[in-house]
UniProtKB/TrEMBL annotation:
Keyword Ubl conjugation belongs to the record: no
Taxonomic source organism: Rhizobium loti (Mesorhizobium loti)
Main location: other
Compartments reported by the entry: Cell envelope
Official protein name in the record: Solute-binding protein family 3/N-terminal domain-containing protein
Family: Belongs to the bacterial solute-binding protein 3 family.
Superkingdom as given in the UniProt entry: Bacteria
Start and end residues of each Solute-binding protein family 3/N-terminal domain: 30-257
Length: 261
């Protein structure tokens, strides 16, 4: 009986060592992903209360590639970076632009899509998107975004900038006549507002592809310490570019294959 007990103890210790030494990669990884679901067609809530959009589909494919269990959470944009820094989420998705400033603080795998900025105005507006046409006007945009940064650095002090928590809120004010134009992403503005309300809005002038603000495309965002996760996500994005999956998803949501790189 004593020999049997000793054998059982030895087997238990050996099993414990095997389990303890099993690498995390062999277990299903859980990733908590934050998205601001007020940004169609990148991310929004449908009539059934489900998150849908371009970024939702992209994240689903990434999670499948990583064989990870992903928990998608709707986090308002103004608190999403704080949530990442507090480890409440592991990754940010949802149309985040890669900038040199952000890359100093975060890892940003990608890009997985590129798109220019554009001013949206009422269909009868004479604004053409130039600083001269915007002088004395009020432009609404999302606070803390590259849109606001562009307005303050490129358009000049002669134009009032009004910031909002979401693009939807800015568009409500253009409808109410409280702002003269809104600045956002052409990929969002055209399907979500111009095509949704024909003969109501238009893009003012040429789209804006200033590389300081838009030239690096969109990426996921994660903490600097999460290098392994960033490498895995980057590989998944590379695979989606190569196999045409990104082109397929962008065609679904934007009506055309939008370049990623």
């Amino acid at each position: 009986m004593t020999i049997w007990r000793k054998g059982l103890q030895a087997a238990t210790i050996l099993l414990g060592c095997i389990v303890a030494s099993t690498p995390l990669s062999a277990q299903q990884q859980k990733i908590v992903i934050g998205l601001d679901a007020t940004y169609p067609p990148f991310a929004s809530i449908d009539a059934a209360g489900k998150m849908v959009g371009f970024d939702i589909d992209v994240v689903d494919v990434i999670c499948a590639e990583l064989k990870a269990q992903c928990d998608l959470q709707n986090v308002p944009y103004d608190g999403i970076f704080a949530a990442l820094e507090a480890s409440k989420i592991d990754m940010i998705a949802g149309g985040i632009n890669i900038t040199d400033e952000r890359k100093q603080k975060y890892l940003m795998p990608g890009p997985y899509i590129r798109g220019p900025l554009a001013f949206m105005v009422p269909v009868n507006s004479t604004i053409d998107g130039t600083p001269a046409s915007l002088k004395g006007k009020t432009v609404g945009t999302v606070g803390g975004s590259v849109f606001e940064k562009y307005m303050r650095e490129r358009v000049g002090s002669g134009t009032e900038v009004k910031t909002y928590d979401s693009m939807d809120a800015a568009v409500l004010d253009i409808e109410a006549g409280r702002v003269d134009a809104v600045l956002g992403e052409e990929l969002q503005i055209i399907p979500a507002y111009i095509q949704a309300k024909p003969n109501t809005y238009k893009v003012a002038g040429n789209s804006i592809s200033d590389p300081v603000y838009m030239g690096q495309g969109k990426g996921m965002v994660m903490r600097k310490s999460d290098t392994s996760l960033a490498e895995s996500v980057n590989k998944a994005i590379d695979s989606m570019v190569t196999n045409g999956k990104l082109a397929e998803i962008s065609t679904k949501w934007f009506g055309k294959a939008v370049p990623a790189r």
